[in-house]
Design goal:
Blueprint lengths: L22 E2 L5 E5 L9 E2 L6 E2 L4 E4 L8 E2 L4 E10 L5 E9 L17 H11 L11 H8 L5 E6 L8 H8 L1 H15 L3 E7 L3 H14 L5 E7 L8 H9 L14 E5 H13 L5 E7 L7 E6 L4 H7 L9 E4 L6 E3 L12 E5 L1 H4 L12 H5 L6 H9 L3 H6 L10 H5 L6 H33 L1
Parallel strand pairs: 1-14, 9-10, 9-12, 10-11, 13-17
Antiparallel strand pairs: 2-8, 3-5, 4-7, 5-6, 7-8, 13-14, 15-16, 15-17
Helix pairs in contact: 1-2, 3-5, 4-5, 4-7, 11-14
The chain binds iron/sulfur cluster (2 copies).
Length: 453
């Protein structure tokens, strides 16, 4: 079907938890709320050690770009503020709250008053919502940027990464909230068409959503399902848009450039609930799975729970995990230990035993072309890798390195086990550095001239 998704790859789905309703963690001993949980500026802590906080109370915020407020996910006392080195290698401030065991709600939580588009955007910001599919873009900013340009809402329920079934469960367990969220977004953005894109390996969710789409559609808003083949990375934004609409998002542009707004299904369901309850984003569903896990499950967790408490809750491990991944195995991030907290963007915790985590030794490229055939962006991963290794920014640019969406298909299919995506990511860093230097060099003569006058 056109330029992008004629490729992509088959991966083992391992969706062992799709029939398991999330189990809710009612109480946890402590949460560690990172002040930076998503794309955009980090929050400033608004509490100090010793403060008593309630569930839903704002504990961090900032006026700087693209931020959203952060809310207490349990009630209790602020134990300390600390700096935590997170999985990306950054040092991030965090507020640690010790539970009082009561989960007392903040008194001022109430459904937002939504009359105008501006009310809606402000309420979405106040809810603390960021993309729950993993991208972590602040939703209020996404909605603002799409307003006036988007004619179609695409709800992303593809969930193409192996293991993860958090959105699948949301589609089954909170389909009414999904419909209400769609209606809200459509109302305030003047959208008349919504399509829920879902892979064909989720038959029960497709049946449920289809019947609700028929009921919820009206002359003003047509809601339908778009059934997609289960191939990875079907849920990647550009692939998803093209598969459902045939529209191609230009390089460097947002989906609104082609009249589309894409929202993850769990984010849409959250908005539907938030409009009714006023409860901000304080919990999320996480799939706990992997070869080291004795009892895979979906768990509804307070944001900020640490992996060690989560894994304790989900039962004995079969073996000590040799590899810990937050979110999916293809695009997730490895954590060195179980001391990391769950953030708003994490939809899975995957724990693998030594055998599964073993890194295969690399060998020389045999020029089989599997990485080129598997790339959904029509790139040449083997040449990009070579350009990175040569430190050749011009070649990286010519090979369109910035078009790489880091889906990992190339590394997955490579018989020589070459670390292609890792090196392409580093190659993108070379390009960014080169661009920054070029800008600084271009600005220098002007600054010199100004200084000399
Ligand atoms: S898949 Fe691996 S071995 Fe084959 S061409 Fe690409 S880099 Fe070379
Ligand atoms: S990681 Fe980049 S180069 Fe590799 S398959 Fe995905 S888009 Fe293509």
């Amino acid at each position: 079907m056109g330029i992008f998704f004629q490729k992509g790859i088959h991966v083992r789905h391992n969706k062992r938890t799709s029939a398991l309703q999330p189990v809710r963690i009612e109480h946890c001993s402590e949460v560690t709320l990172l002040m930076k949980q998503h794309i955009g500026a980090p929050c400033r802590p608004l509490v100090v050690p010793g403060d008593l906080v309630k569930v839903g109370q704002v504990i961090g915020d900032t006026d700087e770009g693209l931020a959203v407020p952060l809310h207490a996910s349990i009630s209790g006392r602020v134990a300390r503020l600390e700096i935590l080195r997170v999985v990306t290698g950054e040092d991030v401030k965090a507020v640690v709250i010790t539970s009082d065991g009561k989960m007392t709600l903040a008194e001022d939580l109430a459904p937002p008053v939504l009359e105008t588009q501006e009310d809606f955007f402000r309420a979405v910001r106040a809810s603390g919502l960021v993309g729950l599919g993993g991208a972590g873009f602040p939703t209020h900013a996404k909605l603002r940027s799409a307003a006036g340009d988007a004619d179609t809402l695409l709800v992303n329920a593809a969930e193409c990464e192996p293991y993860i079934t958090a959105d699948h469960r949301e589609a089954l367990d909170a389909a009414d909230d999904v419909m209400e969220g769609i209606a809200l977004i459509a109302r305030f953005l003047g959208i008349h068409t919504a399509v829920i894109g879902i892979e064909n390996n989720k038959g029960d969710a497709i049946a449920k959503l289809r019947s609700l789409c028929a009921q919820a559609s009206s002359h003003a808003l047509k809601i339908s399902t778009g059934i997609l083949p289960s191939r990875y990375p079907q849920g990647a934004e550009k692939v998803f848009i093209h598969s459902l609409t045939g529209r191609v998002v230009p390089v460097g542009a947002l989906p609104s450039a082609v009249g589309v707004l894409v929202m993850n299904l769990a984010s849409v369901a959250f908005l539907g609930r938030y409009a009714k309850t006023g409860r901000p984003l304080i919990s999320r569903t996480v799939t706990v799975d992997g070869s080291a896990v004795a009892k895979p499950m979906n768990v509804r967790v307070p944001i900020g729970i640490k992996l060690n408490e989560l894994t304790e809750f989900s039962g004995q491990l079969k073996s000590a995990p040799a590899k810990i991944i937050l979110s999916g195995p293809m695009m997730g991030t490895a954590s060195p230990d179980l001391n990391a907290p769950i953030s708003k963007c994490n939809n899975a915790v995957l724990l693998f035993d030594r055998a599964e985590a073993a890194v295969q030794p690399e060998s020389a490229c045999i020029r089989c072309g599997a990485c080129v055939r598997g790339c959904p962006m029509k790139l040449q991963p083997l040449k990009l890798e070579a350009a990175y290794r040569a430190g050749n920014a011009a070649a990286l640019r010519a090979l369109c390195a910035m078009n790489c969406m880091e889906c990992g298909c190339c590394s997955y299919v490579c018989p020589a086990k070459r670390e292609l995506v890792q090196r392409i990511r580093l190659g993108k860093g070379i390009l960014r550095t080169a661009d920054t230097k070029a800008k600084a060099d271009a600005a220098a003569p002007a600054a010199q001239k100004e200084a000399s006058t």
